[in-house]
Write a sequence for this structure.
C-alpha cells in the first residue's frame, strides 16, 4: 500500500480505471486494524491499487472530498468517486462493486 503525501499525488493516482484509498489519521485507534483488514481483503484483487492518506499530511484532501470521519474508504474510477464507506466498512458492498467493474 502506497502512502499519498500530496494532493497532486492523489490526483494522479485517482485517474486510474479503479483505485482504493483509505483516509485516516495518525491518532485513530480503529484505523490500524481496519487498514490491516483492507490489505488482507485486497489480496484477492491485486490488480486494483490501494493507497492510504493521512489527513494531517494532506489537509486539502479532507476539504476537497468532505472526509470528516476516519477511517473512510473511498473508491475512485477515472478520477470520480464511486463508493464511500466510513467508520463501519461494508466489505461485501465493496466486493459487489468490484464484481461489477471487473466483469465489464
Amino acid at each position: 500500500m502506497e502512502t499519498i503525501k500530496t494532493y497532486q499525488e492523489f490526483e494522479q493516482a485517482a485517474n486510474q480505471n479503479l483505485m482504493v484509498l483509505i483516509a485516516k489519521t495518525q491518532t485513530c485507534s480503529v484505523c490500524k486494524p481496519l487498514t490491516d483488514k483492507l490489505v488482507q481483503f485486497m489480496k484477492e484483487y491485486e490488480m486494483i491499487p490501494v493507497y492510504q492518506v493521512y489527513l494531517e499530511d494532506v489537509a486539502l484532501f479532507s476539504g476537497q472530498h468532505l472526509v470528516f470521519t476516519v477511517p473512510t474508504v473511498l473508491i475512485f474510477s477515472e478520477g470520480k468517486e464511486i463508493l464511500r464507506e466510513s467508520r463501519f466498512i461494508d466489505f461485501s458492498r465493496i466486493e459487489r462493486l468490484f464484481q461489477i467493474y471487473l466483469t465489464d
Remarks:
- Strands lie at 2-4, 19-24, 50-54, 72-77, 80-86.
- The helical segments are 7-14, 31-42, 59-65, 91-103.
- DSSP finds four helices and five strands in the chain.
- The mean pLDDT is 94.
